[in-house]
């Protein structure tokens, strides 16, 4: 599967890329997961964003959060893949790419994520370890995880 992989700071996103990113996040987090929450949290503007396109269609995205903006550590958030590519390894490619991009942008150090509980084993495969009790975020069980 040929993917075009992009990593840009917020101000470098084109209007189309921004729209694609917000649409995919809304499709999955709000519609598919039936979770009513405000996705636009005034952090996107200070982050870098990863966009994976397949044939001009956005199929995966994640945001890279600098240290100190959300957690003390750098973070990867809003990790999402479209239904059309699930089970193909695109999610694994996205997280691998995001980890490398974090290190390139922010230097070596721990990465902290807020993961949906069902995805714990997936993130453990990248070296993340659970670092909190289960907590509810917008009606979905989450845990904090750290990659040292």
Task: Tell me the overall shape.
Answer: globular
The CATH C-level class name: Alpha Beta
Number of strands: 8
| Helix-residue proportion | 25-40%
Strand content: 25-35%
Characterise this structure:
By secondary structure, this protein is an alpha+beta fold. The protein has a single domain (4-109), classed as Gcn5-related N-acetyltransferase (GNAT) (Aminopeptidase), CATH 3.40.630. The chain has helices spanning 15-32, 90-106, 120-124, and strands at 4-9, 48-54, 57-65, 74-81, 111-116, 129-130, 135-137, 140-147. Strands 1, 2, 3, 4, 5, 6, 7 and 8 form an 8-stranded mixed β-sheet that branches. A hairpin with an 8-residue loop joins strand 3 (57-65) and strand 4. The radius of gyration is 14 Å and the shape is globular. The mean pLDDT is 95.
Itemize the secondary structure elements and their pairings.
Blueprint: E1 4-9, H1 15-32, E2 48-54, E3 57-65, E4 74-81, H2 90-106, E5 111-116, H3 120-124, E6 129-130, E7 135-137, E8 140-147
Parallel strand pairs: 4-5
Antiparallel strand pairs: 1-2, 2-3, 3-4, 5-8, 6-8, 7-8
């Amino acid at each position: 599967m040929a993917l075009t992989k992009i990593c840009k700071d917020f101000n470098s996103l084109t209007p189309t890329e921004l729209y694609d990113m917000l649409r995919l996040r809304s499709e999955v987090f709000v519609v598919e997961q039936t979770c009513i929450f405000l996705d636009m949290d005034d952090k996107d503007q200070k982050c870098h964003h990863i966009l994976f396109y397949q044939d001009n269609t956005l199929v995966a995205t994640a945001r890279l959060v600098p240290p100190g903006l959300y957690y003390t550590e750098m973070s990867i958030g809003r990790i999402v893949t479209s239904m059309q590519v699930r089970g193909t390894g695109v999610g694994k490619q996205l997280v691998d790419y995001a980890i490398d991009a974090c290190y390139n942008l922010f230097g070596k150090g721990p990465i902290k994520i807020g993961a949906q509980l069902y995805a714990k084993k997936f993130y453990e495969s990248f070296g993340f370890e659970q670092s909190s009790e289960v907590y509810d975020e917008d009606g979905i069980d989450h845990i904090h995880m750290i990659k040292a």
